[in-house]
Amino acid sequence: MTRIDGDADLDAREGHIRRVTVPRRRHRVVIIVVVLVVLPLLVLGTAGTWFWWQLDPPGGEGAAVQVQVQRNWGVPRIADELSHKGVIGSSIVFDVYARLKGETNFQAGTYVMHRHMGARKAVSALKAGPRIDYTNLAVPPGLWLRQIADRVGKLPGRSGAAFSEDSRNNAVRSALQPENVTSLEGLLWPDTYKVSDSEDEIDVLKIMVKTFDQNAVATGLANANVHGYGPYDILKIASLVQSEAKLDGDRPLIASVIYNRLAANQPLQIDATLIYARGNPNLRSLSNADKNINSPFNTYLHTGLPPTPISSVGKTSLLAALHPATTPYLYYVAGCGGKTLFAATYAEHLHNIATIHCP
């Protein structure tokens, strides 16, 4: 009886142990399952919900804002700007979504967006392109390249120095530019250009050269030969005509004087080339000493044409150089009211000078 009671007591103790031990093991398993399975799912679910919330935030869009995307900005920098403007809530979500969509190259410029529009709509807005704001760039005929560069430098965010550098480093070339010439002087077409926010200095230069080349073809310059002179030399002559003539009717006559002097191997003796040699486009008077300037552009010292054109050329001057008048003239002098007086001999030239009495 005692043994049986002892066994019963042992069974009772074992039963008690079983009732305590089994629930504790199950509790630990449940905790492990929660930690290893349920909790990560909850975290992922929360993160996913947050991600989609950042893509398309509820509540509708807010007030309109302007976002300025600068040139050479990458996706992270754009994301920071959008976040700063309140367009998106998370730079990370925008960055990830843009890359997943393969949209990593956005145009520079001004975009009109809305606060709280979310990453998805922000990417779509950027993909559609910026609002195009134009600034007028007026380039009249007769400007030197440095003067054109100054005008480009006055456009918002543009540099005249960068434009000048691009115009002489072969970054852009004209179809009429000889191989040994690096300067684009005279090869930029005068016009009024509309420059967008996204166009930099080299873009402006490209369109001006392209427009020149188109007009060179349209006027017949590209394949021209006038008295043995080819397109680039004709362009030089046109730039001299542009700088010397005040009235359109005088331009073919001035062109004839230049061709006649070249044929006679006489120095052109054109004051505009001396001013160019002096390097000051605003210079209005010259001295006898200027005629001795050591420069290839000094047409008092050197016969023939200067190394390059000396200014941009308008259509009337270009046509005058392409179709000069047929005259015996070798001399001209500016008279009153912008009219030019022409002479075939030096004596006639001196007579013309003596008759000038402007009020």
Can you put this structure into words, describing what you see?
This protein is mostly helical and 359 residues long. It has four domains: 1-55; 64-128, Dna Ligase, domain 1 (2-Layer Sandwich), CATH 3.30.1490; 141-219, no CATH class; 225-354, no CATH class. Helices cover 48% and strands 8% of the residues. It is built from twelve helices and six strands. It has helices at 2-55, 75-84, 91-100, 118-128, 145-153, 160-166, 201-219, 231-244, 251-263, 271-278, 315-322, 346-354; strands at 64-69, 109-114, 134-138, 192-196, 331-334, 340-343. The strands form three sheets. Strands 1-2 form a two-stranded antiparallel sheet. A two-stranded antiparallel ribbon has the order 3-4. Strands 5-6 form a two-stranded antiparallel ribbon. α2 (75-84) crosses α3. It starts with a helix and ends in a 5-residue tail after the last helix.
Topology:
Elements: H1 2-55, E1 64-69, H2 75-84, H3 91-100, E2 109-114, H4 118-128, E3 134-138, H5 145-153, H6 160-166, E4 192-196, H7 201-219, H8 231-244, H9 251-263, H10 271-278, H11 315-322, E5 331-334, E6 340-343, H12 346-354
Helix pairs in contact: 2-3, 3-4, 5-6, 6-7, 8-9, 8-11, 9-11
Brief sketch in words of this structure:
The chain is mainly alpha-helical. It contains 12 helices and 6 strands.
For the structure shown, list the relevant keywords:
4 domains; elongated; about 350 residues; mainly alpha; disordered N terminus; two-stranded antiparallel ribbon; Dna Ligase, domain 1; single chain; about 50% helix; two-stranded antiparallel sheet; 12 helices
